[in-house]
Amino acid sequence: MTNKYMYFIANWKMFGDLRTLNTLNKVIIFTKKIKKNKFKLIYCPPSTLICPLAKTLKKTSIEVGAQNCHESENYGPYTGQINSKMLKSVGAKYVILGHSENRLSGESDKLINLKITAAIKAGLKVIFCIGESLSEKRKKVTKKILAKQIKNGLNKIKNKKRILIAYEPFWAIGSGLIPKESELFETIDYIKSKARGSKVLYGGSVNLKNINNLKNINNLDGFLIGGASQVSNNFIDIIKKTYN
Ligand code: 13P
Fold it and tell me: Cα separation of 143 and 215, whole Å?
């Protein structure tokens, strides 16, 4: 049971179309019934849905974020890319950066730092993902990896309040596995000591079953949720269970 102000962030990854947005009516009704300031709900849909979703959610407390952005703060000849200014102009308030699915396809700490810098400059808040691989966990170098990702990713970023760090171990994403409670508590504490001022969330296989354990980790500030955020009833039940 918690009474803490928590973030629940839905990362829809490459799922959803215009029809999917209708399913959010349930979530909108749910948030309207809840006492204000209890939690913050943020949806990060694919880029194609940011603008219509921001319009749908205009009169609600739910906010919208993007899943990545280009590092340039200006327009430019970058086919297929979108920068943070463009995201902000269609209603995004947040952007997820450094997600392991993008790190695995070649994003370096340096590139992630450039993206974070541009996003903050454009007025977005950043959901900065960090995490170790399974082999790094087995080698017991998790803290070393996280320290490096934080140091390089947040290089010269002064206002840590605009950064929400999401600790997402690669091996926990989509696998049904989560860290042990004691391990997770210790890791979150460690991340907070390295990035003072930032909120720290957990992501990786958060679901209706394990939320009962995860909610006991009282240094967590919320959750970044993939698969389980795509069905509105599941997402609502995860939030309800966190506060029960
Ligand atoms: P799952 O919740 O589907 O494991 O995804 C986690 C994630 O990658 C959120 O960014």
Answer: 22
Regarding the beta carbon of 100 and ligand 1, being less than 6 Å apart is answered no
Mutate to test the pocket of ligand 1, among 14, 94, 171, 205 (most ligand atoms within 8 A of CB): 205
Q: Which atom of ligand 1 is nearest to the CA of 100?
A: 8
**Ligand 1 mean position, distance from CA 154 (Å):** 22
Instruction: Please state the rounded mean pLDDT for residues 104-124.
Output: 97
- 48-77: per-residue pLDDT in tens? 999 999 999 999 999 999 999 999 999 999
The H or E element containing residue 224 is: strand 222-225
- Do the Cβ atoms of 53 and 13 come closer than 8 Å? no
Global pTM reads: 0.97
